[in-house]
């Protein structure tokens, strides 16, 4: 595991953007495409805007397939739909073709939406191992990541898939990659800013023994891939040196 701590958000974003491009270039050189899983929430918006502007000329974006690691159970045009933020900040500016975008169809019931999304991913990988080149993740101030929330059933899933999950504290369904699917990835990167995340981050990184039912981000531990945490100094302020 690599822990990278930055004084400023802009330094962090620049390094993270370089990291994304380096992984993308390697994937494209090896197999002519890059399977890139975006995270939702607020944290990644500036990164996506940076990739689609300053970094626009640094990659052949037509070789990139975009996915979303979790989705809220709201209509696709809703302001909380993770895919909408991605669409506005990176996909539309880069003119990404519709057949390179894999998002959750939330017009379906949550369970069906998860099944259809999992099917679309499996079809895209043509029966090969579901090992994404890069999965970006955020972390909530309760330690959740993707839609793996504390105390939810999906935390026990052993399936390499996408599942729907009822999140009691939000009184809503979510659709999410399971931890085993995330852990198949070749590279996983967390993007965590701000003081509000400091307490959960300390538990996630330093607790021994781990308690993933309380801090689900502890479940993320790629089997053969790399795990990198991009943190600002506010989020990292409680970590032991
Ligand atoms: O609800 C969600 O929250 C997490 C964390 O979001 P952030 O804005 O605090 O970074 C996010 O990673 C996830 O995709 C989203 O659905």
Automatic annotation (TrEMBL):
Pathway listed: Carbohydrate degradation; pentose phosphate pathway; D-ribulose 5-phosphate from D-glucose 6-phosphate (oxidative stage): step 2/3
Alphabetized SUPFAM superfamilies for the sequence: NagB/RpiA/CoA transferase-like
Molecular function (Gene Ontology), one example: 6-phosphogluconolactonase activity
Enzyme class at the top of the EC tree: hydrolase
CDD domains: 6PGL
Example of a GO biological process term: pentose-phosphate shunt
Any Pfam family hit: Glucosamine_iso
Keyword GTP-binding: no
EC number of this enzyme: 3.1.1.31
Homology family: Belongs to the glucosamine/galactosamine-6-phosphate isomerase family. 6-phosphogluconolactonase subfamily.
NCBIfam families given in the database record: pgl
UniProt function note: Hydrolysis of 6-phosphogluconolactone to 6-phosphogluconate.
Protein name, as recorded: 6-phosphogluconolactonase
Source organism per UniProt: Pedobacter cryoconitis
Gene this protein is translated from: pgl
């Amino acid at each position: 595991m690599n822990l990278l701590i930055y004084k400023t958000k802009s330094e962090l974003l620049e390094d993270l953007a370089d990291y994304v491009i380096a992984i993308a270039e390697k994937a494209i050189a090896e197999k002519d495409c890059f399977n890139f899983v975006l995270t939702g929430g607020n944290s990644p918006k500036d990164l996506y805007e940076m990739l689609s502007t300053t970094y626009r000329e640094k990659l052949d974006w037509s070789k990139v397939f975009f996915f979303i690691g979790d989705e809220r159970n709201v209509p696709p045009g809703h302001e909380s739909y993770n895919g909408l933020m991605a669409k506005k900040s990176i996909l539309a500016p880069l003119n990404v073709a519709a057949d390179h975008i894999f998002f959750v169809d939330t017009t379906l019931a949550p369970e069906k939406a998860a099944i259809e999304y999992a099917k679309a991913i499996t079809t895209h990988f043509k029966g090969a191992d579901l090992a994404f080149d890069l999965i970006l993740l955020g972390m909530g101030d309760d330690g959740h990541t993707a839609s793996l929330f504390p105390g939810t059933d999906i935390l026990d899933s052993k399936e390499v898939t996408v599942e729907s999950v009822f999140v009691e504290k939000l009184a809503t369904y979510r659709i999410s990659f399971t931890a085993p699917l995330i852990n198949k990835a070749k590279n996983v990167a967390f993007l965590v800013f701000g003081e509000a995340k400091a307490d959960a981050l300390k538990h996630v990184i330093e607790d021994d023994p781990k308690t993933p039912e309380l801090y689900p981000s502890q479940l993320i531990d790629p089997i053969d891939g790399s795990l990198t945490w991009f943190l600002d100094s506010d989020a990292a302020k409680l970590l032991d040196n």
